[in-house]
Each structure stands twice: as structure tokens, then as C-alpha cells.
Amino acid sequence: MKRVVVVQHAECEKPGLIAEALQSRGYTFETVLTSAGEPAPKDLNQAQGLVIMGGPMGVYEQDRYPFLRDEMSLIECALRESKPILGVCLGSQLLAAALGAEVRKGREKEIGWHPVTLTESTFGDPLLKGLDRTFIAYHWHGDVFEAPEGAVNLASSNLTACQAFRYGKNAYGFLFHMEIVPEILEGMLRTFADELKEEGLNGDNIRRQAQTYLPTLQAIGKHVFEKWAELLNRREKI
What we know:
Elements: E1 3-8, H1 17-24, E2 28-33, E3 49-52, H2 67-80, E4 85-88, H3 90-98, E5 103-118, E6 134-145, E7 151-156, E8 164-167, E9 171-174, H4 182-191, H5 193-198, H6 203-236
Parallel strand pairs: 1-2, 1-3, 3-4, 4-9
Antiparallel strand pairs: 5-6, 5-7, 7-8, 8-9
Helix pairs in contact: 1-6, 2-3, 4-6
């Protein structure tokens, strides 16, 4: 069976367009909600790849959230087996940390719709080549990291030097969100409303801006995640 493990940390932060891309390529996926007490697998076994979604916790909070240690072990296992990995937001931070990078608090939180600029390294990248050099992405993070040693920095923003990276041929981390659909956007705005208030941000403004920016971002996300799903197919044939 063509299967992928999806690790989720918040009910509202679903795989969205990632799930659609996997299904379009004939993959099923097993969702593990570790924050609700569901244990992360010890290894991927027969699964072809690993997806790690976002969440409100920090990589450095492993004493408070012990399941993050298990997720790091699972990522390390996937890296050893050269199985495709896709980390989104917290997932990208966990992947970066597993590769030796320091994840720390940024100088301010980056929440809402902000430009992302792709680096020249994306010109030949299997997922990102051919995309516009700059586009408006959806963000919700306060932690940052440098591109891990041996990784390729793929994108940046005004606040964050490393917004995306690739390690090897098939391990990708994206700090920004391309997977969102309206349901996910609404869920995040409701679930993390207190954080918006603390940061002096207005959820209605983010909602209104989505009418302008979300359709283009969804087209980009669909392209990127379908290309990632092709990496699963490619490895399966090796």
C-alpha cells in the first residue's frame, strides 16, 4: 500500500493541500495527533514518506512536550532511510533541529500575509523551479533557524533569513504555510485568537486579505506538494 505518515500537533493545523496532493498520486496517509496523546511511530516501517505539520509548541520545549523527542527520533529514522520528508512550520523546525540547527525565538512573530522571496538555489529545485521569485505567503511562527549545515536555503522574508530549505534530494522544510485552505485558515484564527490579541493583530484583516492572496498561494501549494508526492513515487521505483 502506498502510504505516508502525517504527524499533527493541533487539530486545526491539518495537511490540507498536502493531503489532496498525496491522494492525487494514489497515496493514503495515517494521521497521528501527538498532542492528543497518540504516540509517534518508532519508525516508518512500510510507509514511503513522512509529513510533520505545524503547532504552537517550540522545539526547545521537549521537557514540556516529550512527544517532540519521539518525533525527532522518527525524523532521524526517515533521514537514515532517505525517505522523503516534508516539514511545515513547527515541522520544518523539528527537521532543522534533527539536522543540527539551533531553533530559537525570533525578534518578533511573523503572522499573517507577508512576501517570501525564493533564492537562486530554487532555479533547479524539483519543487520550486518555475515559480515566481516573490509571492505572498501565509505565516504563523515566532521561532527561527539558520539553514542546517549541508542544506540549501530556498527562501527568505524580511523578518526571517531561512523560510525554506532542502536537505539532500528529498527532505524539505517550509516555515511558511502553503497547505492552507479556508477551513484551516478559519481554524487557526479561532484556535489561536488569544495569540493574535497579544500581538495586536486583527483576525478579520487576515481573513479579508485571504480573499486576495489565498487563491494564488493555493495554486503554488498545489504545485509544490504534487512535486513532493512525485518524489515518493520516484523513490518507490528505486
